[in-house]
Amino acid sequence: MQRFAVRSAVLIAVLFLAAPASAQVVQSAQVGVGAVFPRGFDTRVPGDTLVANVTNANPLAFGGMSEFTTAQINGEWNVTLGDRVEFGAGVGFQKRTVPSVYRDWLNEDRTEIVQALRLRVVPVTAVVRFLPFGRPHNVQPYVGGGFGIFNYRYSEVGQFMDTTDLSIFSERYTVVGNAPGAVVLGGVRMPLGGDIYGLTMEYRYTIASGDTGGAANGFLGDKIDLSGGQLNFGFLVRF
């Protein structure tokens, strides 16, 4: 994945340098909100700690990976060369807390053994879009792709059970890191009465996974899968 990210960065730089000097350059900025949909259990990266949490000898129980569906806010700066090629750099923010309990065990007072599983991701991405029909005063469908660095923070906080003597203790396990990844996308832009303002709808799919440190950091898996789909709606201004 790191090799792919480097190659993507080189490709974007080459395309930018190869663009004709006479090409019309238009800059734009957009802000938006969207929904992020994580991968399901059966398609997650091997060693994923969330899968390990529900498949080990003393499994946790929560509502499934759909529980990690969450909102994202994002912004992007774009540079369009001519009518059909655009480069964009953006950043987003998403955060989700999912409650869980031990499936087969209770406290001595018959209450649940409760934890909170928390995942925060800040994606920083660089993409290239291809707009086959050009001209911003028309509806503009497009496709593209690129790479990103995904800053993540994953934690498990609450009560846990010692598997050797079945005692219950309170703890907080946390890992913070940066993971390289790939981005593919497609979308459409709709003008608002001219060339300056527009509305955007875009679907992205990202492929990335981070390291947790495994047992050394208190986690059952050594990976945290950051991949999934993302549907965004935004407002765009051209300069």
Explain this structure to me?
Helix content is 10%, strand content 60%. The chain is mainly β. It has one domain: Porin (Beta Barrel). A hairpin with a 3-residue loop joins β3 and β4. The chain is elongated. The relative contact order is 0.21.
Unreliable runs:
15-22
The tally of strands reads 10
CATH class: Mainly Beta
Write down the overall geometry: elongated
Please, what is the average pLDDT?
90
Name the CATH architecture. Answer: Beta Barrel
The strand order across the widest sheet is 1-3-4-5-6-7-8-10
Strand content: over 45%
Looking at CATH, which topology would you report? Porin
What about the largest sheet?
A: 8 strands, antiparallel, barrel
The helix count comes to: 2
Q: Structural class of the secondary elements?
A: mainly beta
Domain tally = 1
Distance between the termini: 35 Å
- Element order, helices and strands? HEHEEEEEEEEE
As a percent range, the share of helical residues equals: 10-25%
Rg from Cα: 21 Å
